[in-house]
Every structure is written in structure tokens, then in C-alpha cells.
Design brief:
Blueprint (H helix, E strand, L loop, with lengths): L5 E7 L3 E10 L2 E11 L14 H17 L8 E5 L1 H5 L3 H12 L3 E3 L2 H14 L7 E7 L4 E7 L2 E8 L3 H8 L7 H15 L2 H4 L7 E5 L1 H12 L7 E2 H14 L18 H14 L4 E4 L4 H12 L6 H12 L4 H18 L4 H15 L12 H11 L7 H12 L15 H16 L11 E6 L2 E6 L3 H4 L1 H14 L5 E5 L2
Parallel strand pairs: 1-4, 4-5, 6-9, 9-11, 13-14
Antiparallel strand pairs: 1-2, 2-3, 6-7, 7-8, 10-11, 12-13
Helix pairs in contact: 1-3, 4-11, 5-10, 6-10, 8-10, 9-10, 13-14, 13-17, 14-16, 14-17, 15-16, 17-19
Length: 494
């Protein structure tokens, strides 16, 4: 990546949408611009996990303003990440289709573990480098992430379903605050977070940092009212809680440092923070400058660095964890990518899809670790549910569909096959699996695959069928399999 390159990260949070623009220079990022809008998508999620039209509209309008600022940016310069609200929303695809058209860039819905990884990456990059063992806490709108790490390395990560928006709506309805409500909210938060004590025991870390909105807002209020600047203490939290209870309603709270956009969710955020202080016996917490959006920016740098893409390391880790035959995975990947190059234009988009096809090919036998019977079904399940650092939920799901469809009938993928690029990926993977069935590198340079107007055609050099009779028979069977899809596939096997 060249010095001076502009990079942008968008955080579609449950309470706020944020846009961070920075300039790359020698491994570091200098902030150029920061925009934040309070969208409160999380409050628009009903009991059936459906986003309201009003909540979606607020999000679309915000992204339209961000899109204007990002005019001229290339796809590899921008990463947009969505978190808990869109993880939960059953109608998220409706929101995302329109949102991506407005923004002009892909939006990744990330898992809780991936959100936690990015948060720690952002926090650690903006802290002085040291050997201290850190607990990082990020109280978001509908989820709270906790990370144990040292230096730039996150050692343990978890995401819990509680946050300032969710707890404010559930325990402080219409902004009403009371001592009883606080007690109930804190007990409920401890019930959710109780298991975190096993993952992040206080003996394993010596400094606690708070990232993002709630901790920053609390620190700002305390500092504006005579407490130590840049610090959240247990006594300060007690004082703030008392002020909230005496006010009786967040709308009646008169407090220096309390911003209007934070007011509706402050009670829920404070209740969750108090629960964390009590559970982990924290005496003080330092607000961190970094957050998810900075982590996403540094991830963009890693993806442009040889060997730096965390997704590559994740695929290697999964290969080892599930005892995959790496030689066979490599053969299938090489053949699949060679075929894909013949049917997909060599542009940036197709290069990205080629890489994802290669990852799916390297993991296509992940299910055999569970059972050889229906291994492709087991593999698809693993990829749909595994915590895979670097990958978004849609990326993992697409890979799971490729693994599921590597063999057998295609009827199970009827909806996914409406997508031309997916059809190309899937056909190339299935052909590669067939050609590598003997677990040896096939003579794939003698096989040509072409595509035109919804039709694929495979041809071989003369004599290929005689040298590889089993492969030739399997390819003829593959032609029959595709006859029941919207795509045409023919073969001239000689």
C-alpha cells in the first residue's frame, strides 16, 4: 500500500453509524475526518426481530450522506461493518440490498467474535505499545464485547447480547429511572456476563480499558463534573447512578458533559458498566481511543500485505484443526481457480471471488473430520457456525453453500444459483472435485471451460477421455446434474 492512500471504515452500530477516514503512512493511519450520526437502529428492532421501516429509512439516509463523502474511493479503500442489530434482524437482506446500492460499497455483517477482534485491533493500535495484559470492554447498543490481549494480539474474545440500547429499552422504559430498576438491570446483566469470569479471570489481566460510546460518555461526564479526567472509577459510577436515580427520568437529568444523543441510552449503558465493575472487581477503567472502525482500517492494510490477511491465517488454522488433507485441498483449489479464470473476467471483483473460491476449495473436506457420510453437509454446517476471524457472516455462508454444493443434486441450491458468479464458482469447484477424485493432480491444462449467455461448455483435447475414463464418466454425469438448473452445461469429452 502506497503512502498517502486514503482509507475509510464505516461502523453500522446499533445506536450510531460512524465514518472514519484516514491516510496511510508507513504502517500507520492519520485521521483525516470522522463523522457520526445517531441512527438508533437497535431501537427499531421489534420482538419478532424485524427492523421497522422507520429504522431502515434512518439508516439509508445516513448512508446516503456518507456515500457523498466517499465519492471517488475505490472498493479496496473502504470497509463497512455491521454489528449486532443486523446480526439479529430477520429482514436484514432488505435493508442491506438498498443500503449497499446507496453507499456504493459492500457491507459486511460480522459475527460477535469478528467484531471483538476488530475492536481489539483498533484499541491496541492507538495505545502505547507495552507488555501489559489488557481487558478491553466495548459496551455497544445491543452487544457487549470483551477481549483479553497483550500487545497487538487478542488472546480471548467473546460477544454477549446486552448493551445500552437494549438495556435502556428493557429496564428504563420511556427514560424512567429508579433504584429498583437499576438493581434489576444490573442483576440481569450479571446473569448474562457471569460465564465471562471463566474466560477473562481478573488474575489474567492487569489493566481494564473501555472502548466506544458508553465508557467514553461516562468518562466525559465524570471529567466535566470534577472527577479525574480520562478515567472511570467505581466511586464515580456510584455518583453518576445516584444522580440518575434522583433525576427520576433521563430527560430531567441536568449534567455537564451529557450529550443529547447519549441521553436516551445512558441509564442502560451505566447499568451494564456497573455490572461489569462488580463482577470483575474493577476499581478503575481507562477510556480507549481506538474502536471497531480503527480496527477495520488496519485490517484493510493487512489485506493488502503479503501474508497479512487474517482470513488466510484462519483458513490455515481451520485446515489444521479439522485435519484436512492439505495436498488434496491444494489440488482442488488449483484446478478450481484455473477453471474459474477461464469463465470470469480478470478484474478486481472476480479476483476477490477467485480467492474465496480457493478458500472454499481448501476447506471443502472440512466435514470429513465429523463423518465421511454426508461430509459436504457437515462441512457446510461447520462453516456456517464456526468463529472464523477475518470473515464476515455472508462470506462464511457463501463458502458453506459452495462446500454443500460440491457434490450431489443441485436442487438444494436453487436460490443461490440465481447468482451468476456463484454458479461459476460452484461449477468450477464441482469440476475440480471430479477431476481430482483419484487424489492426484489431473491433466487439467487439457480441459477448457467457456461461458456465454447462461451456458457453460467444457471441451477436452483428443485422447483425454481414454487416459482418464473415470473422470470422463463423472463429467458426463455432471452434465445431467446441471440440466435441472437455470444454467446450461454441455461437454465435448474426447
Amino acid at each position: 500500500m502506497q503512502n498517502g492512500t486514503l482509507l475509510a471504515a464505516i461502523d453500522l452500530g446499533s445506536n450510531s453509524f460512524r465514518l472514519e477516514i484516514g491516510r496511510y503512512h508507513s504502517g500507520h493511519i492519520e485521521r483525516i475526518e470522522y463523522l457520526k450520526e445517531t441512527v438508533r437502529q437497535g431501537s427499531g428492532l421489534d420482538d419478532d426481530k424485524m427492523l421497522s421501516q422507520a429504522a431502515m429509512q434512518r439508516g439509508w439516509e445516513c448512508l446516503a450522506r456518507f456515500a457523498e463523502r466517499l465519492h471517488g474511493f475505490k472498493k479496496q479503500q473502504v470497509r463497512a461493518v455491521a454489528t449486532q442489530t443486523l446480526r439479529e434482524a430477520r429482514n436484514r437482506e432488505e435493508f442491506l440490498r438498498h443500503a449497499q446500492a446507496i453507499l456504493g460499497f459492500a457491507i459486511e455483517v460480522v459475527s460477535g467474535h469478528e467484531e471483538a477482534r476488530l475492536i481489539y485491533q483498533g484499541v491496541s493500535r492507538l495505545l502505547p505499545h507495552s507488555d501489559e495484559k489488557r481487558l478491553v470492554v466495548d459496551i455497544g447498543g445491543r452487544s457487549t464485547e470483551m477481549i483479553l490481549g497483550q500487545g497487538y494480539v487478542a488472546q480471548a474474545m467473546e460477544s454477549y447480547r446486552l448493551g445500552s440500547v437494549a438495556w435502556s429499552g428493557r429496564y428504563f422504559a420511556r427514560g424512567a429511572v429508579s433504584a429498583a430498576a437499576f438493581k434489576t438491570a444490573e442483576v440481569a446483566a450479571k446473569a448474562v456476563l457471569d460465564e465471562a469470569l471463566d474466560t477473562f479471570p481478573p488474575a489474567d489481566w492487569n489493566v481494564a480499558y473501555g472502548s466506544s460510546g458508553t465508557v467514553g460518555a461516562v468518562a466525559e461526564m465524570l471529567g466535566a463534573n470534577g472527577w479525574a479526567t480520562g478515567l472511570v472509577t467505581r466511586s464515580g459510577l456510584d455518583w453518576l447512578t445516584d444522580r440518575l436515580i434522583r433525576a427520576g427520568n433521563v430527560d430531567a437529568l441536568k449534567l455537564d458533559g451529557l450529550k443529547d444523543d447519549r441521553r436516551p441510552v445512558i441509564a442502560g449503558g451505566v447499568a451494564v458498566l456497573r455490572a461489569i465493575f462488580d463482577l470483575f472487581d474493577i476499581q478503575q477503567m481507562l477510556p480507549a481511543q481506538g474502536a471497531l472502525r480503527q480496527g477495520a482500517l488496519y485490517d484493510l492494510i493487512d489485506r493488502e500485505t503479503d501474508g497479512g490477511d487474517v482470513r488466510e491465517r484462519t483458513v490455515n488454522w481451520l485446515s489444521q484443526r479439522f485435519s484436512i488433507d492439505t495436498a488434496q485441498a491444494g489440488r482442488v483449489g488449483e484446478v478450481a481457480m484455473a477453471l474459474f479464470a477461464q469463465v470470469a473476467a480478470q478484474d478486481d471483483q472476480n479476483q476477490r471471488y477467485s480467492q474465496k473460491l480457493a478458500w472454499a476449495a481448501r476447506l471443502h473436506e472440512v466435514g470429513t473430520h465429523i463423518s465421511h457420510d454426508r461430509a459436504h453437509h457437515h462441512g457446510a454446517y461447520v462453516l456456517d457456525h464456526v468463529d472464523a476471524p477475518g470473515f464476515s457472516i455472508p462470506e462464511l455462508h457463501r463458502m458453506s453453500l459452495l462446500v454443500l454444493g460440491q457434490r450431489g443434486k443441485l436442487r438444494k441450491l436453487e436460490e443461490a444459483l440465481q447468482d451468476e458468479l456463484f454458479a461459476k464458482q460452484l461449477l468450477c469447484l464441482r469440476l475440480a472435485v471430479i477431476m481430482c477424485h483419484a487424489r492426484q493432480m489431473p491433466e487439467h491444462s487439457a480441459v477448457r471451460l467457456s461461458y456465454k449467455a447462461g451456458a457453460f461448455r467444457l471441451t477436452t483435447q483428443p485422447g483425454w477421455a481414454r487416459r482418464y475414463p473415470q473422470s470422463a464418466w463423472l463429467l458426463s454425469e455432471e452434465v445431467l446434474a446441471w440440466q435441472k438448473t437455470v444454467w446450461k452445461f454441455s461437454a465435448d469429452i474426447r
